[in-house]
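Hi support team,

I'm opening this ticket because the web form for multi-chain structure prediction keeps timing out on my end. I have pasted the exact lines I submitted so you can reproduce it. The total is 612 residues across two entries, so I didn't expect it to be a heavy job. Is there a limit I'm missing, or should I split the entries? Thanks in advance, R.K.
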Amino acid sequence: MTAPESMTRKRSGGRTRLFLFGAAALLVVAGAFFSESLCPYDPYLQNLGAALEPPTAAHIFGTDRYGRDLCSRVIVGSRASIFSTLALVAVITSFGTALGLFCGWARGRADTFLMRVSDLCLAFPCLVFALAVAGVLGGGLHNAVLALAAISWPKYARIARSQTLAVRETDYLKAARLAGCSAARLAVRHILPNIAGPILVTAVLDIGTMMMELAGLSFLGLGAKPPMAEWGSMMSEVRGLLQTVPWAVFAPGLAIFAAVLVFNLLGDAVRDELDPKMKGR
Amino acid sequence: MKRYVLQRILSLAPVLFGITFLSFSLMRLAGSDAVTEMYSGAGAAVSQEVIDAARAKLGLDRPFLVQYVSWLGGMATGDMGKSFVSGRDVLDTFLSKLPATLLLAAMSVLLTVAVSIPLGVASAVAHQKAGAAREAGLRALCSLLDFVVRLGSFVGNSLPNFFVALLLMHFLAIRLGWLPVIADGVTLRGAILPTLTLTVAMSAKYVRQVRAAVLDELSKDYVRGAKARGVAARTILVKSVLRSSLMTLATLLALSVGSLLGGTAIVETIFMWDGVGKLAVDAIMMRDYPLIQAYVVWMAVIYMGVNFAADLLYLVLDPRVRWEASRNDGA
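Hello R.K., no limit was hit. The queue was backed up. Here is the completed structure from your submission:
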């Protein structure tokens, strides 16, 4: 008697969480978009007379080595971190899904070959490979995104492929084929909507991880380069001064933590919504 | 069984081939090669003839595949070239730094297992008890325990490892002065902070996976059956549940070694730990391609080896796999 009741209660709780964290994530993205008008000072304006000041009412995170307001830099830094992460996840999701869908549908030699390639990518530790590629390409945020994309797409290709293999045997797909649907229409209208769930869950859960890896590459000097404000490179710039100005290191660190936390919470809520089996796991 | 193991080893060959091929091609992405690197330091402009002659001498004018095969041959005999920067043998340099990294990785894995399995199991059991226990107090305590473990894992999962490293450095080394800020050589004392950093990230993920695996196992029919027959809860947990989830846990642990190996690059750089991760980051800064190449190849090979070992562990842990394997031998 109580089981259905508790299930519906939990379900609506999941919805609330989804909307709450979805709104929070949207807020973060909007904040990043309007970051330039949100910061109290010019994030690139140097004032060497006021370098390395501790947090005050005027500069709530203090100032950095060049007297730039850290709060403004953290706010503007969100743009580089968040948009490059979102772009990265969008690229690997669409590329991986398209490839996986093609493999699952076409099968045959092309499928075998592409899956061997994806196996090969999975054989490398992700960050090791990205490190080398970004290093060889010579750093820069674009190259860091490219490097991570080159190694991260196979996960999506495999999910899309296995889902497509399952879907292609269903009656509704056979019916659609008999009705004379073109391959493109079959893929977009009939297969894609039915395999999107698990891919979306993986993609949203990936945002936080990718944000951290991208920031990690920047921290090593292989991503965003100074003077561009980016959280990872901001931390790397001042890490030698940890002893004297810890706030300058921790402000961007807390920003990464908060952003990753929001997207991880959203990812969990999305998973609970789309994949109820995994609830509470 | 021997034949099964041999088959598995042979199946690694194409992957190994692919790893070396991809790593070799990777260096082709660079806009420069050994010769341009060599003369870019010379300062004076060098004529094209001199460059061509140097290329021919190093064999860089040969077709790509020929170069790959000769590189592969060199690798098989332990010759991975010389460093562009120091001129030292790449493999020797790499191998001299490898033990420090392996020590860090092994300590992190051990600590992760020691932390995550008890916490994950406790959290799973508490999660079950929180719904089923009779006394309200116990129920509250159990859901609190479960909540705290999950919260901790969530927070740990959202912290980038370089931030964890700097936090630990700030509090344990600078504020409290318990540990050295940077490692003075490869010592156990210097290894504590890097190990802790790597463990935080790894445990945060692993605790969750342990909890999920144990919960999954606990909901199976045989557990209910054993309970009905009056088998003690502790016996079920240790003898059946833990034993059957061990395989999942071994696989997941082996997979997480991938991010561990990548993480060592960042953590070693921060703590000045003299391992291959720091070596690779330094090599990247100096555009020392042969070293980067060796790093990528060997990290992938180590990762592959760890996952292969986890596969072999199945043979020990799972009688079904063992049976399949020995049946294959007979055929």
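A quick check on our side: The mean pLDDT of chain B is 85. Let us know if the file doesn't open in your viewer.
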